[in-house]
Amino acid sequence: MIEPSWIAGLGAFLFVIGLAGCFTRKNAIIVLMCVEIMLNAVNLNFVAGAAHYQDVHGWVYTAIAIAIAAAEVAVGLAIFLALYSQRQTISLDEVTLLRH
Amino acid sequence: MGQHNKSEWNLLLPVAMMITFPFICQAVGYDAISSTIFILAVPLLVFPIVLILGQVFKGTDMWKHDLKEGGIIVLAALAITLVLTLWLVYEFILGHGHFPGTGTIIPDWISFDLLNDDGVNHELIGAAGISFGVWIDAVSLTVLFVAAFLCFLICWFSIGYMTTDPINEDRNHRFFGEFLLFSLGMFGMLLADSFLWLFIFWEIMGLCSYLLIGFYWEKPSAAAAAKKAFLTTRVGDVFLMIGLFMLYDIYHSLDFAVILDSPALTATGEAVSGDALVWPLLLLFVGCVGKSAQFPLHVWLPDAMEGPTPVSALIHAATMVNAGLYLVARMFNIFAEPAFEGMLSDVAMLIAWIGGITACMAAFIAFVANDIKRVLAYSTMSQLAYIFTGLGAAMWFANNGYHHLATVAFGAALFHLFNHAMAKGMLFMASGSVIHEMHHAHDHVHEDGEDHGEFDPQDMRNMGGLASKLPITSTAMMLGSMSIIGIPLIGGFWSKEGIVGQAWNVYLHGGSMILFPAMLVLITAGMTGFYMSRMWLMTFAGKPKSKAASHVHEVTQWIKTPLVVLSLVTAFSGFLLALFGFQHFLGEENGHLELHDGFIYALVATLEHAFLPKEITLKIVGWTTIALSALLGPFIAMRLHGGGLAKGEEATPLVAWLVDLSGRAGHTDVTELAEGGFATALHNRLYIDDAYEWLIAKTIIPLGAACAWVDRVIIDGLGIKFLIENGTQSISTTVRSLTTGRASDYLLMAAIGMLAIVFILWGVA
Fold it and tell me: B535 near B372, Cβ under 8 Å?
């Protein structure tokens, strides 16, 4: 049995990698992948917790989270397609409409 | 004149109002005193109606011809006030009504709490209210009658004067509305039962004076004159206000009932020291000086002649300028208080001095004025100054224990107020008639294409020989001038004689300081004889001095009627009222007008009093006054400006003798004198206006420039630029740079915020 704290540390590490990717990368698809990494970091915590406490709730949450992440990726990619058809780019540096 | 053929049914409105209103009042249970509320309420309600209706209906035929652009409505309102005033006078003289001095109509209009503030404790010592009531005694009633009577007649006159001039078209409702508001101010000031209300109505009059002087606002000179009048009187009003504060501080009240009934006691019954009253009374007097256009603050009155002539007649000759006199007259009880005996003599002397100086100075300037209205304006200043001298003498007597003499002098001064208001109101209306007809004649000539260029219908150098063309006007003006000059038996003679005599009487009773003003008013009597005669002769005698003057005709009935009425009043009222002991009536509280011991005895007594007083000095002074004013002054004027009419012109017999006399008086050429240094100084109004302008240029304008510099350099430069402008600029630049618009930056901020919250919660836990 692996110590839960190691798994929590791995989850935190993955989460920070995803977060840093979100902050720094310009390509929207890579940002979306980073979001997936963060989600999976959370899922990892859920699964580890469920195994540790012998509680089924963690697995249920993980299943829901994966389903929602799939839907979110579908919506996100659709948005990127629409963005690309308007702007011919999906670089986040050039999409600064919020500023105005 | 098509309007003459139309029946003047519109006159029915004022007449009907006049006849029915007192009966309506009586029917609903109002007696004469309670009806005084309508003297104020009617103008207050009607003036906005006239203004609004005028704005809505201007230009329509009904408004223009049937209602005379609102003039008829205003005339009706003034008719009501006149008839109520007459009712009041009637009841007062017969002693029917109970006149307690004051009758409060609206008690506790405003209530407020009084704090006892000794620097440490602030405790409530009771409530005080500002109530509005009326104060009616012989003085206020006399001036009220003068005001109501002249307001009515001058409104009548202005219907003829204002509505026939195309330049006034479609804005006469403004004139009439402001006219009515003015009369509200005047009536209110006279009826007020406390100094506070007096001051409020006083300011309403000041406002109307400003608005009406600037009636022709598109003329720069009129706009400047309005500003000058407003600001100059404001100087006086500031002092007046400070005086009122001091008075309140002394008496804890501004009610006449407190201050005038027992001047030695405060509202709470403590004793008042006479010395403490010197300054408040002086400050109040400064306010009066401003309002009545006396020496240091007189500069506004001649310029105020820029307003329409009815305004000059009403506000700047007959009523508003009397406000200052009325306020001084109101102080009489304070001077007469035995507890203050001898303490206020200096104030009385100052009043007399200001009067003497102004009388003489204004008469000098009137010598050279060529504008007919300006001659009258300076004459107004001079005559008001007479009244101030008389009041000063009365105050001195009252303050030194000579109560009978004080009554005589006080009565003479206020009698002169009455006579002067009547005569001067009429003189201004007559001058208005002259100007009006000159203007029309000039337009007529101009149509023929003969006379071009600048033409001033008010310049007497363009007139001459009008006696045959304007019979009623010339007669009216002759009577008015005689009243002002003080030709024996006519109008102002009775009062002027009294004022000059009493001023000398003060000297005889030990008030040696009055010698200077007493001499000045004596000399001014002769000067008045000169400048009034000069004005009349330049206008009516001799040959026409311009084309327009030979084409003048007297036409408008609306203008003629008030002139006739006031001519009769001016000619006879002085004598009649003198017979009835008007002077004593004014001086004594709740007196009665009556013939003492039958008509013949009263006649003899009055004549004896005027012509053969007991003291030899008074006899000399009286006869010197008559000789100077009735003989010497007019004679010199005839030598300089007289002359017979052109051939074939006939004046009415009433004035023909005067024209003929002036033609026979011979002629003296005074060109040299008229071009001398003193005459130039007089033309420049003795440089007083220039001195004020210089003073303002040296003090207020640099002060203003300094303030502007501080504002521009220090406030804008340091304050705004460095602190506010730079500070906010740099902060906003920093904040703006955070707003990149990139989603990932916002995400970073959200993450940092989330972390911050977590750490805070962690710390709290």
Answer: yes
